[in-house]
Design goal:
The chain has 9 helices and 10 strands. It is of the alpha/beta class and 295 residues long. The strands form 2 sheets. Strands 6-3-7-2-8-1-10-9 form an 8-stranded mixed beta sheet, with helices on both faces. It has a two-stranded antiparallel sheet with strand order 4-5. A hairpin with a 2-residue loop joins strand 9 and strand 10 (284-292). It is globular. Bound molecules: 3,4-dihydroxybenzoic acid and fe (iii) ion (FE). Residues 13-16, 60, 194, 196, 238, 282-284 line the site of 3,4-dihydroxybenzoic acid.
């Protein structure tokens, strides 16, 4: 039996959320409502544990710098240590990879004409570890292997929404051709609206974020046509992180096998099993979404 993608998880990755977990502050007045909001997602993943997660995220000049700027970097390593982002590495477990699945995805996706960068050694920053902490809490070891897919959304030019959706479609085909009975989830992380510098620092756009979630669920192909300038104007300079959510969305069944992403496959749309929107955490609007596939 081959591997399959069963669900997608979308979540912000605000570093202060990781600090709140690491320092035992989740019950404090500021944090308690947000962590109460995460509870249904944590209950869902306890009921629906993946065998592996493809975790789409962005590095924030920790593993990569201006020396090398890969647009799409897939991790093939057996393990990844948490990055030191200036305050020492987060006290979270080593992230274990899935070299066989990752190598298969690399082969399949590159043969589908996506020129991935392949990474055999890197550290992982809050962009990857905070989503793991949000979903799994503080286990002594992460409960499943992770295939990291680091996307450049920090230094322009960054990939288009259309390219991200197409990459998700290619990843679905790759997973479905992996000859191993694996239940795979794909996570899209980052966002939602936030801007960390300049005159508009602190920007949050609640109506735009909520409309983004609506369109991600119901009109992913249309949303994929939205240009970068709209993300930056409406959701702030760091709001462009949201373009990564389209990779995970493109890997769902209803986007499959559509040569032209403006078309739609026959498969039923995924079921929304969890949706959260909370403002603010640190400087950022926090969104979380879980979509389950039926195929
Ligand atoms: C914040 C959010 C981010 O996405 C990030 O990478 C760093 C900081 C913040 O809200 O503070
Ligand atoms: Fe970020």
């Amino acid at each position: 039996m081959s591997a399959r993608i069963t669900a997608s998880v979308f979540t912000s990755h605000v570093p202060a959320i990781g600090v709140a977990i690491d320092q035992g502050k989740t019950g404090e007045t500021y944090w308690q409502p947000l962590f109460a909001g995460f509870e249904p997602a944590r209950a869902w993943i306890r009921e629906n544990p993946p065998d592996a997660v493809i975790l789409v995220y962005n590095d924030h000049a920790n593993a990569f710098g201006l020396e090398m700027i890969p647009t799409f970097a897939l991790g093939l390593a057996a393990s990844y240590e948490p990055a030191d982002e200036g305050w020492g590495p987060r006290p979270v477990p080593t992230v274990h990879g899935h070299p066989e699945l990752a190598a298969h995805i690399a082969h399949s996706v590159i043969q589908q004409d996506f020129d991935l960068t392949l990474v055999n050694e890197m550290t992982v920053d809050h962009g990857l570890t905070v989503p793991l902490s949000i979903m799994f809490g503080q286990p002594p070891a992460w409960p499943c292997p992770v295939v990291p897919l680091a996307v450049n959304v920090v230094q322009y030019p960054v990939p288009s929404g259309r390219r991200c959706l197409q990459l998700g479609q290619a990843i679905r085909r790759a997973v479905e051709s992996f000859d191993n009975d694996l239940n795979v989830q794909i996570w899209g992380t980052g966002g939602m609206s936030h801007q960390l510098q300049g005159p508009r620092a602190g920007l949050i756009n609640q109506p735009w974020d909520k409309a983004f979630m609506d369109r991600l669920i119901a009109d992913p192909a249309g949303l994929a046509g939205m240009p970068h300038i709209d993300y930056v104007r409406e959701a702030g300079s760091e709001g462009i992180e949201l373009v990564m959510w389209l990779i995970a969305r493109g890997a769902m069944a209803d986007c499959a096998d559509v040569a032209d992403p403006a078309g739609r496959a026959d498969s039923a749309a995924p079921t929304v099993v969890h949706r959260l929107y909370h403002v603010p955490a640190s400087n950022t609007a926090v969104g979380q979404l879980i979509l389950e596939d039926h195929s």
